[in-house]
Specification:
The chain is α/β, with parallel strands linked by helices. Helix 6 (170-181) runs parallel beside helix 8. Bound molecules: alpha-methylisocitric acid (MIC) and iron/sulfur cluster. Alpha-methylisocitric acid binds at residues 36-37, 64, 118-120, 133, 360, 378, 480, 527-530.
């Protein structure tokens, strides 16, 4: 039978039958963690008492919490470095770059599976591997040698026809896909790109597209491994990692779309969802205060070639602050060597660290009511650190010309080939530490033990702690940013911030009533992989989340920590009293809203292993 590339990659990592919609278990070759999710992942891994990681390669990156105001971030880094060395994990020091950019450059291999405790792990799928984002506990289990459980995805084919026109970018392709499929259109699907247009895209451009597949809620997004892949691996001095890979001729897909690159125009995702996509000309010349170029979506050398071509000989508008954050030390060194950095500085850019930085609200928050254009992937409410700011997501080309003009502008008439594509890459890897398998774990005072959770009973009466609408992101549930991120290894402390930008009384209510139930609508928990968005609510006594639908990673995180995710449409207001009864086979739930006098009976579609997890109170109780 002719197979899609996705099916081939999955089939090569399991002995099970590929049955769409059913749980499947795949072997994981590589893992990655980053510091903001990594502290939990390694605490979880340590609790499993495994002598060393069982994967072919595991890498621990430090790229999120690099602000280091106070001792907490630095203590987390020291903890991560000590565990990595002891347990056989490669350690990428702060300053080496954003995990996804560095992994693509130095470690990702066509044909392999990669599981990462960050939702943008599929960036590496630009090279032809199957890279999936997951919660830290899933990654800890993979490091301990356990297979990863996922819903066997449907495969969506997007055929790229033609060639991108001047000023139109890989970012516009994924913004187009987001416009077509929306932020929930990819749940339990892998997006597979084919067609003649693929050949014209370099690996970093493909990675921009697979990176932002996370915003579709997709399990992953994959590109074939072809001559462009070989070209990139050769530049990275890794040609031996190349294997050609593509879908079989005649493979059949669950959904099929075509994008004509010849007619694609520059696009922009408007506040405050990545799928609020319109054309740049449609949105018009809105005045901007800030422009930021970087993040794991658009911070490659190829991106900076375009930006520098536009900025050469021009000046950043006096009313705009232009920040640039090269995605890795490699990119930084290359733009330094090629003179691109000087061009950018001469134009008036501010150089930021090679890290996540403003993408996760670590600095560079816009001014009150500020308009910020960013080459990033998320523009959720409050994420920038300024609640009144409006964040627009754009390509590097749109960002650059808008920084010059001071208003949102189209780059289609700009000259973009002032700087050449690279003939070789710079790499020294001197911020990459190999494990020594000795030493001891260093734990600063802010790193607290993991909380223990009991199973939620099948019958309980509890109050509604919060009632929410569609597309609630993990940034709403458990915000990040400079104030909160230092507590990622301290659940008690971080729980103070649970939902605090949405409803400042959430925690107070949970403490008063001993927790209860969260009620929401479609696509609950979209966005990041942070398991804190499950652990903190569980710590506050949340037993169940009732929503019309869930985002993939978050649903798994809820089950992993013993919160029951129920797909049902229930109307409830805050403090309504709910009586919940799950039947003995876990196939049906009855939810009685005692306050309103209504009852909903909904089917439950858990597989046996999920029921076992819920009955144990979570994966950690089962794994230990
Ligand atoms: C994000 O982009 O939201 C993050 C920060 O990278 C998260 C991980 C985290 O919250 O630590 C993600 O995408 O998974
Ligand atoms: Fe870092 Fe932003 Fe990428 Fe998340 S989306 S990994 S915060 S750069």
């Amino acid at each position: 039978m002719a197979l899609t590339l996705t099916e081939k990659l999955i089939a090569a990592h399991t002995d099970e039958k590929l049955e769409k919609g059913k749980l499947i278990h795949i072997r994981i070759d590589q893992t990655l963690t980053q510091d903001a999710t990594g502290t939990m992942a390694y605490l979880e891994f340590l609790s499993m008492n495994v002598d060393k990681v069982k994967t072919e390669l595991s890498v621990s990156y430090v790229d999120h919490n690099t602000l280091q105001s106070g001792f907490m971030n630095a203590d987390d880094h020291a903890f991560l470095q000590s565990v990595a060395s002891l347990k056989g994990v490669v350690f990428s020091k702060p300053g080496n770059g954003i995990c996804h950019q560095v992994h693509l450059e130095r470690f990702a291999k066509p044909g392999k599976t990669l599981l990462g405790s960050d939702s943008h792990t599929p960036t590496s799928s630009g090279i032809g591997c199957l890279a999936i984002g997951a919660g830290g506990l899933d990654v800890a289990c993979a490091m301990a040698g356990m297979p990863f459980t996922l819903v066997m995805p449907k495969v969506v084919n997007i055929e790229l026809k033609g060639k991108l026109q001047n000023g139109v970018s890989a970012k516009d392709i994924i913004l187009k896909v987001l416009q077509m499929l929306t932020v929930k259109g990819g749940v339990n699907k892998v997006i597979e790109y084919t067609g003649e247009g693929v050949k014209s895209l370099s690996v970093p451009e493909r990675a921009t597209i697979t990176n932002m597949g996370a915003e579709l809620g997709a399990t992953s997004s994959v590109f074939p491994s072809d001559e462009r892949t070989l070209e990139y691996l050769t530049l990275q001095n890794r040609s031996e990692d190349y294997v050609p890979l593509s879908a079989d001729e005649g493979a059949s897909y669950d959904e099929y779309y075509v994008i004509d690159l010849n007619t694609l125009e520059p696009l922009v995702a408007c506040p405050s969802q990545p799928d609020q996509v319109r054309s740049v000309t449609d949105v018009g010349p809105i005045k901007v205060n800030q422009v930021l170029i970087g993040s794991c979506t658009n911070s490659s050398y190829y991106d900076f070639i375009k930006v520098a071509s536009i900025l050469k000989g021009k000046k950043v508008n006096p009313n705009v602050s232009l920040g640039i954050a090269p995605g890795s030390k490699q990119v930084l060194r290359m733009i330094t060597k090629s003179g691109i950095l000087d061009t950018l500085l001469e134009a008036g850019a501010r150089l930021l660290e090679s890290a996540c930085g403003p993408c996760i609200g670590m600095g560079q928050s816009p001014c009150t009511n500020g308009i910020s254009l960013r080459t990033f992937n998320r523009n959720f409410y409050g994420r920038s650190g300024t609640e009144s700011a409006s964040i627009y997501l754009v390509s590097p080309e749109v960002a650059a010309i808008s920084a010059v003009n001071g208003y949102l502008s189209s780059p289609v008439r700009e000259k973009l080939d002032e700087f050449e594509e690279p003939r070789e890459f710079v790499f020294d890897d001197n911020l990459v530490l190999q494990p020594t398998f000795d030493g001891e774990v260093i734990m600063g005072p802010n790193i607290k033990p993991l909380p223990h959770f009991e199973a939620v009973p099948k019958e309980f009466t509890a109050k509604t702690m919060i009632a929410l609408g569609d597309n609630i992101s993990t940034d709403h549930i458990m915000p990040a940013g400079a104030k909160v991120l230092p507590y990622r290894s301290n659940i008690e402390r971080i729980s103070d911030f649970c939902f605090y930008q949405v409803d400042a009384d959430f925690k107070k209510r949970c403490v008063e009533y001993g927790g209860g139930v969260i009620v929401a609508n479609e696509n609950y928990g979209q966005g990041s992989s942070r398991e804190h968005a499950a652990i903190a609510p569980r710590y506050l006594g949340i037993k169940m989340v009732i929503a019309k639908s869930f985002a993939r990673i978050h649903k798994k995180n809820l089950i992993n920590f013993g919160i029951i995710p129920v797909e049902a449409s229930v109307r409830a207001d805050v403090l309504d009293e709910l009586k919940v009864t799950i039947n003995s086979s876990y196939s049906e739930v009855t939810i009685e809203n005692i306050t309103k006098g209504t009852t909903v009976v909904a089917p439950l579609s858990f597989e046996q292993e999920e029921i076992t997890l819920l009955e144990k109170g979570g994966l950690l109780n089962l794994a230990n």
